[in-house]
Amino acid sequence: MATLPSSSFLNLNFGFRTLLPRRGFSQGRVRGLNNLCFLCKKKREIWGSNRRLDRIKCFSINGNDEGDEKRPAPAQEEPEQRPGGDDLKSERNTPASVSPRPPGIPSEGQTFSSFQIDSFKLMELLGPEKVDPSDVKLIKDKLFGYATFWLTREEPFGDLGEGILFLGNLRGKKEEVFAKLQRLLTEVTGNKYNLFMVEEPNSEGPDPRGGPRVSFGLLRKEVSEPGPTTLWQYVIALLLFVLTIGSCVELGIASQLTSLPPEMVKYFTDPNATQPPDMQLLFPFVETALPLAYGVLGVQLFHEVGHFLAAFPKKVKLSIPYFIPNITLGSFGAITQFKSILPDRRTMVDISMAGPLAGAVLSFSMFFVGLLLSSNPVAAGDLVQVPSMLFQGSLLLGLISRATLGYTAMHAATVSIHPLVIAGWCGLTTSAFNMLPVGCLDGGRAIQGAFGKNALFGFGLTTYSLLGFGVLGGPLSLPWGLYVLICQRTPEKPCLNDVSEVGGWRRTAVTIAVFLVVLTLLPLWDELAEELGVGLVTSF
After folding, report:
1. Which sequence ranges form a coiled-coil region, renumbered to this chain (predicted)?
2. What is the band of 215 on the pLDDT scale with cuts at 50, 70, 90?
3. What's the mean pLDDT in 312-323?
4. Residue 513 near residue 435 (C-beta atoms within 8 A)
5. Mean pLDDT of 506-525
6. What is the pLDDT of residue 44?
7. 303/419: higher pLDDT
8. How confident is the model over 229-279, as pLDDT tens digits?
9. Torsion of CA 136, 137, 138, 144, to 10 degrees
């Protein structure tokens, strides 16, 4: 049964009464301490070693010790006597830092209703299960010491303080000490806990051996590890995949805009059109739209295969992909979650980069082959007419298209291209959006693994600003920004080893990838488009 101390939610007030020593203090009154309510017992465990608990009396509900149960009034006691000299001496020798009432506990007389007590119990039951105090004592005795990690203090760890963060001084190389502590933890407690090596929060300086100062966090496995995929999640994933197939087919039909019936084109392009046309007119165009739909969907599937191929050697489990349909690009990609804790930041970078890299390689191959076929007279029968403004949506892809097709073909109202160009363009744009360094997108995970969570905060703030002002992504910047805010804004959870560096070449690869993402999503401004001959620019 999961428990969580109610102090994680609010500052509780308990009614305690401090009783001075009285003559004739009966043994029955001492036995009454065993009848404390659960809240007072919690406080008794916390105070226990350095308090005189025989002076504490609990008034949990209506001044009674046991909820609604009423006790007979105690017999009249003799008048209080002033303590003797020994008692006064002991009171004077009490350290000043020990107060008779802990912080947050009001003066006597304040009580709680049964509804409040039940609410506190419910909050404890619904919270995550905490680390067993007996295990903490055993871990401190068996794991930490002069040869591994000299423990100085402890702090809460985890989203709700359900774990323990051990702070102190490292006594060796980080990787060697961490491996030794993990082995000792398994020997002492079995397969019960996960140990994390993280940067020490609010550290005063770097570690003398190099790198940041480290601390070790302890969480239960059932709290720290992701849960299994449920039946409803499989149903949702299947439904989203079917919708994504439909959006890819719709993209294929839209690519044949010049061949569609005029009433169909007017309905989808004229904002004043209210009378819907006969949708059966679209059926003859579905078959010709399938090749483009297969290409766009194939890029997304290849993207996910790249993630799984990179995760398999690392023994990292991934969830099923939740594809996000989009009528403009066919798909916004997919949400794929980690179903196991990542061992280190290198693994996070490798798995995060593998998907966009696989999708980008396939997309660019389709894009470039499509450009070559577009200038080949043999494939003239397969070409489709698209507005030339399409090529102004990307600085990088527009320049490649201009260099391949030439000035004459690009400097026109419409351009004849092969459907592979559209499939590759959509795939590259989707891969670039997913590599944006924000949240738990592939780019955000890669930045977090390569440079740390603090760097991700700066990159994320910049990305949100560029999307908000429409600098990146053009007309797709707003829907993509909303999608990230709703579904992908939270950074990835830390790895088991969240401190060790990933190496220079991984950081370089991530930096180059982010630079290419900016070039792909940065639109061509009108002056440059007119000068290069990419489309017809009528106004500046």
Report:
1. none
2. very high
3. 92
4. yes
5. 93
6. 53
7. 303
8. 889 999 999 999 999 999 998 888 887 776 777 777 676 666 666 666 667
9. 90
CA dist 352 and 244 (Å) reads 22
Backbone phi and psi for residue 11, each to the nearest 5 degrees, phi listed first: -85, 110
464 by DSSP, 3-state: which? helix
Contact 388, 414 (CB under 8 A): yes
- In sequence order, what DSSP letters do the residues of 311-334 get, joined into one string? HTTTT--BPPPEEEEETTTEEEEE
Q: How far apart are CA 536 and CA 455, in angstroms?
A: 41
Q: H-type helices in 190-282, by residue range?
A: 221-224, 231-254, 262-269
Does residue 107 surpass a pLDDT of 80?
A: no
Q: Output the average pLDDT for the chain.
A: 77
| Cβ–Cβ < 8 Å for 116, 10 | no
Residue 63 Rama label (left phi>0; alpha psi -120 to 50; beta): left
Distance, in Å, from the CA atom of 116 to the CA atom of 277, rounded to the nearest integer, reads 62
Exposure string of 321-343, with b = 16+ CB inside 10 Å and e = fewer, is bbbbbbeebbbbbbbbebbebbe
- Work out the percent of the chain whose per-residue pLDDT is above 90: 30
H/E run at residue 168: strand 163-170
Structure confidence at residue 450 (pLDDT): 92
E runs forming strands in 29-157 = 56-58, 149-157
Q: Checking phi first, is residue 71 left (phi over 0); if not, alpha (psi -120 to 50) or beta?
A: beta
DSSP 8-state class, residue 420: H
Read off the pLDDT band of 90 (50, 70, 90): very low
Q: Are strands 163-170 and 149-157 parallel, antiparallel or unpaired?
A: antiparallel
Q: What pTM does this model have?
A: 0.72
Q: Which two tokens stand for residue 32?
A: 């009454």
* Mean pLDDT, rounded, for 171-176: 88
* Range scoring the smallest mean pLDDT among 40-44, 155-159, 399-403, 492-496: 40-44
The alpha carbon dihedral of 223, 224, 230, 235 has a sign of positive
Contact 415, 385 (CB under 8 A): yes
Residue 175 to residue 406: CA distance in whole angstroms: 56
Helix axes 419-434, 283-311, angle to 10 degrees: 40
Asked if residues 73 and 79 have their Cβ atoms less than 8 Å apart, the reply is no
Strands (E), 279-387: 322-326, 330-335, 384-387
Determine the residue type at 509: A
Three-point CA angle 161, 166, 171, nearest 5°: 160
Cα–Cα distance, 373 to 421 (Å, whole number): 9
Instruction: Tell me if 502 sits within 8 A of 346, measured CB to CB.
Output: yes
